[in-house]
Amino acid sequence: MLPLLAPPLLAIPFPAFDPVLVSVGPFAIRWYALAYIVGLLGGWWLSRRLVANARLWGGTSPMQPSDLDDALLWIALGVILGGRLGFVLVYNFDYYSAHPLDALMVWRGGMSFHGGFLGAVLAMVLFARSRGISVWSLFDVVAAVVPIGLFLGRIANFINGELWGRVADVPWAVIFPTGGPEPRHPSQLYQAGLEGLLLFAVLMGAVALLWFGSGPLGLVIALAMVFNLLAAALVAAFQTGLAPLPGTLQAAPGEGTDIAKAPWAAPPSAASASAATAPKPKATVRSPNT
C-alpha cells in the first residue's frame, strides 16, 4: 500500500463530472464518444486545408480535398468498429461471449483506444489502395492532425475519472473518485499536454518546413511516432501502471499486470475504470453496465 504523501488540504477535489453528456431513453452520448466525434471532424477539417495547400507538397498535392471527405467515413468506421471490437475482446470478453448481441450496443459505452487506432490504420490502407493514393502520403496527413483527437481523448479520460496517476504531493494533485483517498497525479492532463498540444505544435512546425513535399514519404508520421514514444516514457513515471513502450504489459512493483491499467488503455467511463483496476479474487462474468 502506498503511503499518503500529501495532506488532503493540498489536493484538489475531483469535479462532479457525469460521464454521460446527454441521454435520451436508452441512448447516451458520453464524453469519450464526443472526443471521438470532435476529433474526427476537427482532423477532417484541418487535413482538407493541408491537402489543398499545394505549396506544402512541393507544388503538387498527392490527393484532392474531396478524397478526404470519403476517407473520413472510412476512418470513422474503422475507429468505431476497431474501438468496439478491442473493448469487447480485451476488457470484458467473458460477458460479451455470453451476451454477444450486447456488443452491438455501442451507445452503452465501451471503446478501446488501441482497437480504434488499428481500425483506423486498416481503413486508411484499404482506402488509399482503392483510390490509387500513396498510403504514406495519407498517413502523413492524418498523423499531422491526430493530436487533436489525442488531446480530446485524454481530456475525456480526466472527465471520466479514469487512468489517474501515482500518489503525489504536488499542489495540483487530484483526489479521484476511484483512486482512493490519496491525492494523485492527473496524468491524463500531462498526456493531453504532451500528446496533444505539444505534439500538434511540433508537427505543424514540421509541416511548415515543407516536410510533406521534401524527403521520403512518411517523415511526418515517423516524427509523430518517435515523439509519442518519448512522451509515453516521460509520463510513465507519473502513472500507476508503467509501460515503457505502447502495447507492453510491464507494471510497477506491486501494481500487477492488469491490461486495463496500462497508460495507453482508454476505458469509456469511471465505472469501467474502477471495475478494471479493482482487485478480483476470482474470475466472474459480469455486465459492463453494472
List the helices and strands and how they pair.
Blueprint lengths: L11 E2 L6 E5 L2 E4 H22 L12 H26 L2 H6 L14 H19 L3 H25 L14 E2 L11 H22 L10 H18 L33 H8 L13
Parallel strand pairs: 1-4
Antiparallel strand pairs: 2-3
- The H-and-E topology, N to C, reads as EEEHHHHHEHHH
**Biggest beta sheet attributes:** 2 strands, parallel
Portion in strands: under 5%
Proportion of helical residues = 40-55%
Alpha carbon gap, first and last residue: 27 Å
Query: What is the count of distinct domains?
Result: 1
What order do the strands of the largest sheet run in, or round the barrel if closed?
Answer: 1-4
User: Count of DSSP helices?
Assistant: 8
Q: Quick one: overall form?
A: globular
Number of beta-strand segments: 4
- Low-confidence stretches at least 5 residues in length (pLDDT < 50)? 1-9, 242-287
Radius of gyration: 20 Å
Question: How confident overall, as mean pLDDT?
Answer: 79
Category by helix and strand content: mainly alpha
Explain the overall architecture.
- 50% of the residues lie in helices and 4% in strands.
- It is mainly α.
- It has one domain (22-273).
- The chain has a two-stranded parallel ribbon with strand order 1-4.
- The chain is globular, with a radius of gyration of 20 Å.
- The two termini are 27 Å apart.
- Residues 1-9 and 242-287 have low confidence and may be disordered.
Attribute tags:
single chain; 4 strands; mainly alpha
